[in-house]
Design brief:
This protein is an all-alpha fold and about 110 residues long. The chain has 7 helices and no strands. About 20% of the residues are buried. Keywords: TPR repeat.
């Protein structure tokens, strides 16, 4: 998972995203994360990383699908909600993004205090 985090962090660099080695690494990691989810279906971090990699690979539908599966495992996890909001906003689905954020506040009125 540490290797995955390093590779996903390079997604911030437009030149790195274009490189063949980055794309090959991302494809490899996606396959490994899918295997890890099969072997450890309750390990939330693998879902989060897989969702991020699908997003980096410009597959927001798959990213959302994976993150929604993760959210079934941990419905109150704010990190998942923020990733979903990001995907919804990138698609210009602001109504859905706002609903997710409103639910976060509804679930935890002290969210701004953290």
């Amino acid at each position: 998972n540490d290797f995955s985090r390093v590779i996903v962090s390079y997604a911030q660099n437009a030149e790195a995203l274009k490189s063949e080695i980055y794309q090959q690494s991302a494809d490899f990691i996606i396959e490994e994360l899918k295997k890890n989810i099969q072997e450890h279906p309750f390990e939330l971090q693998s879902y989060i990383l897989l969702g991020q990699f699908y997003d980096v690979k410009n597959n927001p539908d798959k990213s959302e699908e994976i993150l929604l599966r993760a959210r079934e495992l941990s419905p109150k996890r704010q990190q998942l909600a923020y990733y979903l909001v990001r995907i919804k906003a990138a698609r210009r689905d602001y109504v859905s993004a706002l609903k997710i954020l409103e639910q976060l506040v509804s679930d935890n009125h002290n969210i701004a205090d953290r």
